[in-house]
Amino acid sequence: MSPIDVKIEDGIATVCINRPERKNALSVAATNGLTDAWEKIEADDSVRVAILTSADCGVFSAGLDLKEATQIARDEGVDILTKMRDPFHETMRACKKPIIAAMTGSLMAGGMMLTLNCDLRVGLKGTKVGITEVKIGRGSPWASPALSMLPQPILMEIVLTGDLMPIERLHEYGFTNYIEDTPDAVRARAFDLAKRIASAAPLSVVAAKGSVRATMDLGCAGGLKEGKRLHEVVYASNDAIEGPKAFAEKRAPVWTGT
């Protein structure tokens, strides 16, 4: 059984971590499988939006597979990260298409890293969230972008104590878009968001995500400049003509992505 399943339908790619017996922990195969999935999604023009979810087991992802890490260190004398093509999931972060996290359980460590790379997040009530690296002697350089998603004192508490927080508390700070009662409801909400995004003008969606991400990375002035550059292709597109035309004619627009 593959640790990563990818399904593409109606412009929506669903990526599922399928390791419930290991709390959806990120093994070498799973991490490399995720890198393959994001490369496939980025290259597929039929994909408008992606959902990241996992097999139901109470945990969205426990992060790094510590048992495999211990075995690799013992047998090969190297750190597990050296076996991964993209250990910090930068391919995912660089994906131009929107990614929605359907978090159907608690998440910690690398599971949190995956959600930070998502653009929208749907969580499950009663679950917990954290960055536990300080409790196991690992590191979380990937946590820095969370400073634009959570207040600084809260992020400091998370990274310095390694404690798990109720998702309801993080929801109050705006970390999640929605929290739902059941895993099925989490996935349904994520799919509804994905359908709405997939129905929008594709060039506009890509430019909108890119503009927000650029502002996170570059600050307001730099983000505004980059946002205007990203939207040049939008304003010059056939879709920019089709949208107003369809509105005037009181019909649904037919997007071509050109």
UniProtKB/TrEMBL annotation:
**Gene3D superfamilies in alphabetical order:** 2-enoyl-CoA Hydratase, Chain A, domain 1 (3.90.226.10), Lyase 2-enoyl-coa Hydratase, Chain A, domain 2 (1.10.12.10)
Q: Fetch the InterPro entries from UniProt.
A: ClpP/crotonase-like_dom_sf (IPR029045), Enoyl-CoA_hyd/isom_CS (IPR018376), Enoyl-CoA_hydra/iso (IPR001753), Enoyl-CoA_hydra_C (IPR014748)
> Which SUPFAM superfamilies does this chain map to?
ClpP/crotonase
CDD domains recorded for this chain? crotonase-like
Arranged from A to Z, the UniProt key words for this protein are: Lipid metabolism, Lyase
Acetylation as a keyword of this entry, yes or no, is no
Which BP terms from GO are recorded?
fatty acid beta-oxidation
Which Pfam families does the annotation name? Answer: ECH_1
Respond yes or no to whether keyword Disulfide bond is given for this record.
Answer: no
Recorded family membership:
Belongs to the enoyl-CoA hydratase/isomerase family.
Q: This chain belongs to which protein, by name?
A: Enoyl-CoA hydratase/carnithine racemase
List the source organism. Answer: Thalassococcus halodurans
